[in-house]
Design a protein that fits this description.
The complex is a heterodimer. Chain A is an alpha/beta fold. Chain A is about 45% helix and about 15% strand. Chain A has a six-stranded mixed β-sheet with strand order 8-9-7-10-6-11. In chain A, strand 3 and strand 4 form a beta hairpin. In chain A, helix 4 crosses helix 5, helix 9 packs across helix 15 and helix 11 crosses helix 15. Chain A is globular and about 70 Å long. In chain B, strands 1-2-6-3-5-4 form a six-stranded mixed β-sheet, sandwiched between helices. In chain B, strands 7-11-8-10-9 form a five-stranded mixed β-sheet, with helices on both faces. The chains are: A alpha/beta, B alpha+beta.
C-alpha cells in the first residue's frame, strides 16, 4: 500500500483511494464484474449500514463518495468539510473494507449498468457511442475491447456473488494507493493506512495488459441509428505513453492539432472555424474520459495501452465523408510537414503553463500524483517542465512522422443512413461540400485536395451494425 | 447562533462612471486568477419573434475578432498564455471566462476589452458561425433530457422568452445565417458597460485590477436600449405533453410548477430550494422509495434554478421499470400535495440547511471554482453578498415557510407535466 499525504490549511478534505484493478480484469464472458463490484462498494451499503442510511449520512454533511472505474484503475473519491473529516474517513473505510453485498442493491446497480449501455450509450450519447465503437474495433477480444460497465448479455448473467468474487480477488492492500490532501490529511491517512491494511495482501501482477492487437488494414464500423447528424471517432494504436522518449514532442503535435475543447487546434480551425462543419474537433494521445462533459481530464484513468484518437463532433450526414477526409488530411499534413515555428512555440507554451492550472484543486492534484506513480513520470507538470523546454520543432516533426503515419486506421460512425456513407467511402466517391457564404481560394484549393483524398479500406473490413447489437 | 458565511472570502466592488462594475475577490490560492465577464443578457433578452437562440449565437460571434485582435491572434495569445478559456449562455446571462497565471492578468484584461469595445466581423464569418451553432444543436439533440426540457418550456410558457431553451428553436437556428444586421443591433443593445459585471478572482490585488479595468474599459460608452420582457400571465390549468423518442431510452417524467423570480428579501425562494433538496433529492424519502426500495426509477432530482423572472420548479425522474411512468408521476404529484398539506419535521429541515451549506462550501476549492459558483449570483444581483443573503434565508426558513410556499406554488392548475418515452 502506498499512502500520499498533502496536508494544508484548507477547510476541505480530499481523499482518493485507487485500486489497480479495472475492467481489463473482467474474465471473458463475465464483462462488468469490475464495474459492479466497485458500484457495490460505493453505492451498495455496508454490513452495518444500508445504502439509504449512507445517503442520509452524506446528505446532512453535503459530502460525497464517488467511484470511477476504468480499464486498469478503480478510484474512490471522498470530498468533505474538515468538520466531518474523521467520521467521513470512517465511512470510506467501512465502504471499502466491509461491504454489505445485499441482493437488492446488486440488482439495482446491475440494472443501472445495463441501462448505461442500452439507454446511455446506444440511445442518448452518439458521440460516446462512436468512441466506444472505435475502442471495440481497435481492441476486439483484448481486455480493453469492452466498455468499462461490461456488456449487456454478460451483465444480465452476473449475480451478486460475481461482484464479491471480483472484490475478493482484486481489492488487496498490495494494489492500492491512498492519497489524502487538505484538512487533517495526516490523521486521515494514518486511519486509512490502518483500516486498508486489514485488506488481504495482494500484489498487482505487473504488465498484465497485453499489447493492442495489430491493425494490418483499415477497419470501419458504421452504427446505424436514428439521428439528425453523424458522430465520428477515428484512431489507431499508439506505442507512446508518458515516459516514452517521444511523448513530450508528440504531445506538442497533438496539442497543436487539436487541444481538447480549445479553439486553437488545426482541426478546430479547419473544420469548425473556417468551414462551420460542426461544433469542434480534437486530438488525443491519452484516453480522455467523458470529453463532452468536461473541459479538464479527470485523473485516474491511466492506461498502459493508448490510442491516438481524433474526435470529430457530429456533422450533417451529407458532410460526414468530407469531414473524415479533411480530418485525415490535417493529420497527414502535420505528420509530413510538422509544425511551423510559431505553432510549435504556442503549443509548447500552452502545455507548460496550462498543466499548472489542471493541478490546482487538491483533489485533482492527488489524482494526478497517483497517475504519475502509474506511469513512473511523477506529477505531469514537473515532467513536462523537465522535458518540454528541451524539444525542438525537428523533434516534433520526427515524432509525428514516426507515430502519426500508420499504415491503417480505424473509424467509427454513428448516425442515420450508414449504408450510403459506407458505400461512398468504399467507392472513394466525390464528397463535394457547399457553403452558405463565399470562401477564399486557399480554402477551396484545400477542399479540392481533401475531397480527392483516397481512403483505402476493403469492404470486408467494414460493417454496418444496428445500434441494438452494440455492446450486447 | 449566527451561522458562518457560505461565501467565506472578502471582496471589493469598483463601480466605474460608465456603469461597468468590477467585483474583485482575492483568494488564498497562489499563482492563478480567473476572470468572468458577465453580460446581463441571455435568452431572456430574445423578446422578438424568430430571434430565439440569438444570445447564445452572439456568444459565438464574440470569438470572431477585432481589427487589432483577429481571431487567429486572439486564440494564439490565449494558447501562449496556457489559459483555460470558454463561454456559456444561460437564460439571464452570457459569461466569458478565463483562468490563467495571475501574472498574465494584465494582458488578458487588455485583450478582452478590445473585443467588447471593438468587435468586428464579416457577414461571411457570421454565416459560417451560424453553421457551427447548428452543429451544437445536433450534438445536443441526441440527448433526451435536452428534448424534455425543450418541450417543458414550450408547454409551460406562452409569451415569456423562457419558453425556449438557450439554444433556441431549431426553426430559428436554421434562419440565423440571414440575421447579420440583427446581430450588429444585438451587440449595440446589450454589450454595454452598465449591462456587464466583471469578476476577477484569485491571486490578485483589487486596486491594481481596478486601475487596469479603468484604463482599458473606461472608454466603453453606455447604451440606451431599454429591454421590455413580456410577463407571463398566471397558468390557468394543468398542461401536459408527451414526447416519443426514436432511439432506445428510459422513460422520463418532468413535473413542473410555476416558481417565483429570485428574491432574497423573503424566505419564499429559499423554501423552494429547501423543498427540492428535502423531498426530491438523494436525501429524500421519495428517492428511497422510488430508486432504492421499489426500484421503479433510476434517478430522481429537482431544481428550482434562480431566475430574474418567474420560472419553474421542476422535478424529473428517469423511470426504469417498464409501465411505471404513471406511478412515478403520481408519486411526485402526491409528494407535492403532501407538502402543501402538512409541515415537514424541523429536524429534517436542519439537515437540509446543513446540506446546502456544506455542498456550496465544498465547491470552493480553487480560483476557477469560486468564480464559477459566484457568477450566477452576480448575474442576479451584481454582488457576492447575494450568496450570503440567500443562505441567510435558508437558515431562517421554518417548516411553516415551506408549507406556505408549497401551498402557493404547487397548485394543480399551475402544473405542467411532460413525459418522454421510446417510440413503440
Amino acid at each position: 500500500m502506498q499512502v500520499l499525504v498533502r496536508e494544508d490549511a484548507s477547510p476541505l478534505l480530499s481523499v482518493r483511494v485507487v485500486f489497480m484493478a479495472g475492467s481489463a480484469l473482467d474474465p471473458p464472458g463475465r464483462e462488468g464484474m469490475a464495474w459492479v463490484a466497485a458500484q457495490m462498494l460505493a453505492h451498495g451499503g455496508t454490513r452495518r449500514r444500508s445504502y439509504k442510511q449512507i445517503l442520509d449520512f452524506l446528505f446532512a454533511r453535503g459530502a460525497s463518495v464517488d467511484v470511477t472505474v476504468d480499464k486498469e484503475m478503480t478510484c474512490f473519491r471522498l470530498g468533505c468539510h474538515a468538520d466531518h473529516a474523521e467520521e467521513m474517513t470512517e465511512l470510506l473505510a467501512e465502504l471499502l473494507c466491509d461491504p454489505g453485498w445485499r441482493e437488492e442493491d446488486f440488482l439495482r446497480l446491475r440494472d443501472d449498468a445495463v441501462h448505461l449501455l442500452e439507454a446511455g450509450l446506444r440511445g442518448e450519447n452518439d458521440e460516446e457511442l462512436a468512441r466506444e465503437a472505435l475502442y471495440g474495433l481497435l481492441f476486439g477480444q483484448h481486455p480493453y475491447g469492452h466498455p468499462c460497465p461490461g456488456r449487456v448479455s454478460s451483465l444480465r448473467r452476473l449475480d451478486a456473488g460475481a461482484a464479491r468474487e471480483f472484490y475478493t480477488a482484486e481489492y488487496g492492500r498490495g494494489n492500492v494507493i491512498a492519497a489524502c490532501g487538505g484538512a487533517r490529511a495526516e490523521s486521515v491517512a494514518a486511519r486509512l493506512r490502518q483500516r486498508l491494511g486489514g485488506l488481504p495482501a495482494r500484489t498487482r501482477s505487473a504488465g498484465f495488459v497485453p499489447a493492442a492487437p495489430a491493425l494490418p488494414a483499415s477497419r470501419m464500423i458504421f452504427v446505424e441509428k436514428p439521428a439528425s447528424s453523424v458522430a465520428v471517432s477515428l484512431g489507431f494504436p499508439l506505442g507512446v505513453r508518458r515516459g516514452h522518449a517521444d511523448y513530450p514532442a508528440l504531445l506538442v503535435a497533438a496539442s497543436a492539432l487539436g487541444q481538447h475543447r480549445m479553439s486553437s487546434g488545426r482541426l478546430y480551425q479547419s473544420l469548425r472555424h473556417h468551414r462551420g462543419l460542426n461544433y469542434g474537433d480534437y486530438a488525443y494521445l491519452e484516453y480522455f474520459p467523458a470529453p463532452m462533459f468536461t473541459l479538464e481530464p479527470e485523473p485516474n484513468h491511466a492506461r498502459q495501452r493508448q490510442i491516438f484518437e481524433l474526435w470529430v463532433r457530429p456533422v450533417a450526414p451529407e458532410h460526414a465523408h468530407f469531414a473524415l477526409r479533411l480530418a485525415l488530411h490535417e493529420v497527414e499534413k502535420l505528420a509530413a510537414e510538422g509544425l511551423r515555428e510559431d505553432e510549435f512555440e504556442a503549443a509548447r507554451s500552452f502545455l507548460l503553463r496550462h498543466c499548472v492550472l489542471l493541478e490546482e484543486a487538491r483533489s485533482v492534484q492527488l489524482g494526478h500524483e497517483i497517475d504519475g506513480l502509474f506511469y513512473g513520470t511523477g506529477l505531469q507538470s514537473a515532467y513536462l517542465k523537465q522535458h518540454l523546454p528541451e524539444i525542438t520543432p525537428d523533434d516534433v516533426r520526427r515524432a509525428a512522422r514516426r507515430h502519426l503515419q500508420p499504415g491503417a486506421l480505424a473509424a467509427a460512425f454513428a448516425g442515420p443512413d450508414m449504408d450510403s456513407l459506407r458505400n461512398a467511402i468504399l467507392g472513394n466517391k466525390p464528397s463535394p461540400v457547399q457553403y452558405n457564404s463565399a470562401k477564399p481560394d486557399w480554402l477551396l484549393r484545400e477542399d479540392a485536395a481533401a475531397a480527392a483524398r483516397r481512403i483505402d479500406v476493403q469492404a470486408e473490413n467494414t460493417r454496418v451494425q444496428p445500434v441494438e447489437e452494440m455492446f450486447e | 447562533m449566527a451561522q458562518p458565511n457560505a461565501f467565506p472570502f472578502g471582496w471589493h466592488i469598483h463601480d466605474f462612471p460608465n456603469g461597468l462594475r468590477l467585483v474583485a475577490v482575492p483568494l488564498p490560492w497562489r499563482g492563478t486568477a480567473s476572470v468572468y465577464i458577465i453580460v446581463h443578457a441571455g435568452s431572456r433578452n430574445e423578446v422578438e419573434p424568430g430571434r430565439s437562440g440569438f444570445a447564445h449565437f452572439f456568444e459565438h460571434m464574440m470569438f470572431r475578432g477585432t481589427p487589432a485582435w483577429p481571431p487567429e491572434r486572439y486564440e494564439r495569445e490565449l494558447q501562449r498564455l496556457g489559459a483555460s478559456s470558454n463561454a456559456y449562455t444561460d437564460d439571464d446571462r452570457t459569461v466569458y471566462h478565463t483562468t490563467l497565471a495571475a501574472t498574465d492578468l494584465d494582458a488578458l484584461i487588455e485583450m478582452e476589452a478590445d473585443r467588447f469595445l471593438r468587435l468586428e466581423y464579416s457577414e461571411e464569418d457570421f454565416r459560417t458561425e451560424a453553421l457551427a451553432v447548428l452543429g451544437e444543436y445536433w450534438k445536443d439533440s441526441a440527448e433526451p433530457l435536452n428534448r424534455l426540457h425543450e418541450v417543458l418550456r414550450d408547454t409551460a410558457f406562452d409569451i415569456h422568452p423562457y419558453k425556449h431553451t438557450t439554444m433556441g428553436f431549431l426553426r430559428d437556428i436554421e434562419r440565423m445565417p440571414e440575421m447579420y444586421g440583427y446581430s450588429l443591433q444585438f451587440f449595440s443593445r446589450y454589450y454595454r458597460p452598465e449591462n456587464t459585471t466583471m469578476l476577477a478572482a484569485g491571486d490578485i490585488e483589487p486596486e491594481a485590477v481596478g486601475a487596469l479595468v479603468e484604463k482599458h474599459w473606461g472608454a466603453w460608452p453606455r447604451g440606451a436600449y431599454r429591454l421590455e420582457v413580456p410577463q407571463e400571465p398566471p397558468q390557468q390549468g394543468l398542461r401536459e405533453a408527451r414526447i416519443e423518442w426514436e432511439s432506445h431510452t428510459l422513460p422520463c417524467v418532468a413535473v413542473a410548477q410555476r416558481a417565483p423570480a429570485y428574491d432574497d428579501s423573503s424566505t419564499e425562494c429559499a423554501a423552494l430550494d429547501l423543498i427540492s433538496a428535502l423531498c426530491f433529492s438523494q436525501g429524500s424519502d421519495l428517492y428511497r422509495r422510488l430508486v432504492i426500495e421499489e426500484q421503479w426509477a433510476e434517478d430522481l432530482w429537482a431544481n428550482a434554478v434562480d431566475h430574474l423572472d418567474p420560472y419553474l420548479f421542476t422535478v424529473v425522474a428517469r423511470v426504469k421499470q417498464p409501465g411505471r411512468t404513471a406511478d412515478v408521476r403520481r408519486a411526485i404529484e402526491d409528494e407535492m400535495e403532501r407538502l402543501a398539506a402538512e409541515p415537514v419535521p424541523a429536524e429534517r429541515l436542519e439537515q437540509v440547511q446543513s446540506h446546502l451549506f456544506y455542498r456550496f462550501v465544498l465547491g470552493l476549492d480553487r480560483s476557477d471554482s469560486v468564480a464559477a459558483r459566484l457568477a450566477p449570483f452576480l448575474a442576479l444581483r451584481r454582488t457576492p453578498e447575494t450568496v450570503n443573503r440567500l443562505f441567510d434565508t435558508y437558515w431562517r426558513a421554518a417548516p411553516q415557510d415551506l408549507l406556505a410556499a408549497a401551498r402557493r406554488w404547487f397548485p394543480r392548475e399551475g402544473r405542467t407535466v411532460v413525459t418522454l418515452e421510446e417510440k413503440s
